[in-house]
Description:
The protein has twelve helices and 13 strands. It is of the alpha/beta class.
Amino acid sequence: xxxxxxxxxxxxxxxxxxxxxxxxxxxxxxxxxxxxxxxxxxxxxxxxxxxxxxxxxxxxxxxxxxxxxxxxxxxxxxxxxxxxxxxxxxxxxxxxxxxxxxxxxxxxxxxxxxxxxxxxxxxxxxxxxxxxxxxxxxxxxxxxxxxxxxxxxxxxxxxxxxxxxxxxxxxxxxxxxxxxxxxxxxxxxxxxxxxxxxxxxxxxxxxxxxxxxxxxxxxxxxxxxxxxxxxxxxxxxxxxxxxxxxxxxxxxxxxxxxxxxxxxxxxxxxxxxxxxxxxxxxxxxxxxxxxxxxxxxxxxxxxxxxxxxxxxxxxxxxxxxxxxxxxxxxxxxxxxxxxxxxxxxxxxxxxxxxxxxxxxxxxxxxxxxxxxxx
Length: 374
Ligand SMILES: *Cc1c(COP(=O)(O)O)cnc(C)c1O
């Protein structure tokens, strides 16, 4: 052992808390949603009585062929392919880009984290356009970068002029834009994206809900724009939220750099088997996506009938509602007592609101009945 490196001990060991990176002490933590068994235990409700519409999960679950493939798979004891080659080539065909443009991750959350670790240093600024997905400010804080908030306009479209003026500051390096946006459900317009891309900043377009949207994907544009990164995931359309498989689409030279900082076994074998089987059975799964899109219209009508909810048109598998004349937190609790879990949002940019994930027809009926008694 080489003892010459050891720091001289004066007043005993330093408290470990003094060694934590100082900016992490004031971190505003990410507020995650909880799985059904935890909701059941904490709420004293039988798991089969829970209608879980707080996480934009797929109420139909994975394709039956995914379950069969997971059962058939016989190499759970072997490390996964660090290059995720089979999944990436299937994805390349699904998305219409080259496999060299794709990086797969432990959910698209991991790609978000890799992006900030790849690009940001203390002193850099990330532009965030709220109301939006909470992961963006969270990962920005964790890596010690600054956040510039540019609020969306009242119709939740981008305030492009304000975004451009913040991106013009030298410290601004990266912007997150979800399309369709969570929790508002509206897609990013091409002219908004192109204005932002022209600044040269890294533009991350998060298409977690793309399969539910009638607006075209921006994935094909990574070939023309080196500063564009598009994120997709199996969590929502394919019903694999618990298995954690997402991916980023970007110029091959950027993908190559990201590959070098990526943990090699970040996607586990179950995730790989399930994602590959989902792509092989995409016709069936997209059929269920079609049912969810149909159900979205029914849910929208039922929410509006309640009288105190103002549903906002959505291209995703959820509907945001502003609540009028009642406390949204109260409404959430009353629905929870009937086993219905939805997301309560109450922030300066989006006060007194509720987000309902689109479920099956019987879930819409349960919501309608419960709202009638609120
Ligand atoms: C749900 C969601 C994700 C998370 O996707 P994972 O692949 O499950 O990590 C990413 N972005 C947005 C906007 C989401 O709503």
